[in-house]
Amino acid sequence: MALSREEIVARYGTALFNYAQDMNALDTVKEELCELRKAVCTNPQILSVFSDPILNSDEKKKSLSAIEQGFSTEVQTFLNLLLDYNHFLELVDIIDFFNKLYNDSKKIMVGTAITAVKLDEDQLSALG
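Above: the chain's sequence. Below: its structure in token form.
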């Protein structure tokens, strides 16, 4: 029986979180995933390349090695795992799930502040 998208996201996000925690690299992985998420959201065709059935796995691995340069071993290993198991299309959702686990573990709450007047720098820094 095939896993649903939500199950894949939860499993991979949890596995990455636990792996990063075990490797004492949680903060580094979080920062790198945020950078990666921004890049992928800016250029969504990146996900299509790694999910394209026309490209063979060697071509995909070469492309991935160019992208993952500068990332930690943990993130590189994870990206290769996604490529090997053909779950690259779920990358953004997996990152979001990882971020939720990270925020929960650090007791970080995320919200939106709606104000009637523009906040000054001191007020903004007090929120963030």
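The chain has a mean pLDDT of 92.
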